[in-house]
Amino acid sequence: MPLTPKNLAWFTLNRTRTDPSPYQLDCAEINWLEDNTPVSSHYGDIYFLKQQGLAESRYVFLQQNQLQQRWQQLDTDNRGIFTIAETGFGTGLNFLASCQLWVETAPPKQHLHFISVEKHPLKREDLQRALSSWPELAPFSEALIANYPVLVPGHHTLHFPAWNISLHLLLGDASD
């Protein structure tokens, strides 16, 4: 969302007095367990179990949505766009697992448009630490980290043309 006087007024009116700026979000505050498991201090909830996080993402997000089968049925001759939308970007693990599967299974003329909303985005350092648990996702996590937006409210579009993938990351409250 572009910052217009109307948007700026909304951010100014709805921020608390302790907020440093109307342009800044309430970022995720992460507590790290001994095994490098990230825990949200806002909600007291873990982002993933280090030993099972990627497997859980693959099973719950990719398999239960039958993404591999659906992508393999896409038109191989004509260009097209497949869109995924989720709330709660978190560490981006669902996005990265989707990227890996997309590259492995989708027809080359198709484009993945991934939309995600995050109210409390991770700081770049926390994102990098969290994603270091999965070296098999390194090409995708490195690209995400290198292009990770400045954490200001609004819409941020990241393009990964080598993989025919774009990420539309909306930072702020999903209800807004």
Give a structural overview.
With 176 residues, the protein is of the alpha/beta class. It has a single domain, classed as Rossmann fold (3-Layer(aba) Sandwich). The chain is 33% helix and 21% strand. The chain is built from 6 helices and 6 strands; from the N terminus they run αββααβαβααββ. The chain has helices spanning 5-14, 53-63, 67-72, 93-105, 124-131, 138-147, and strands spanning 30-32, 38-40, 80-87, 110-118, 154-160, 165-171. The strands form 2 sheets. A 4-stranded mixed sheet has the order 3-4-6-5, covered by helices on one side. The protein has a two-stranded antiparallel sheet with strand order 1-2. α2 (53-63) packs across α4 (93-105) and α5 packs antiparallel against α6 (138-147). The longest helix has 13 residues, at 93-105. The protein is globular and about 45 Å long. The model is unreliable at 1-20 (pLDDT under 50).
Main-sheet strand order equals 3-4-6-5
Mean pLDDT: 85
Count every beta strand, where a strand is a DSSP E run of 2 or more residues: 6
The low-confidence runs, each spanning 5 or more residues with pLDDT under 50, are 1-20
CATH architecture classification name: 3-Layer(aba) Sandwich
Estimated helix fraction: 25-40%
The radius of gyration computed from the alpha-carbon positions, rounded to a whole number of angstroms, is: 17 Å
**CATH evolutionary superfamily:** Vaccinia Virus protein VP39
Distance between the termini: 11 Å
Q: What is the third-level CATH name, the topology?
A: Rossmann fold
Shape: globular
Biggest β-sheet description: 4 strands, mixed
H/E order of the elements?
Answer: HEEHHEHEHHEE
What's the number of domains? 1
Top CATH class: Alpha Beta
Query: What fraction of the residues are assigned to beta strands by DSSP?
Result: 15-25%
Number of helices: 6
Q: Find the structural class using helix and strand composition.
A: alpha/beta
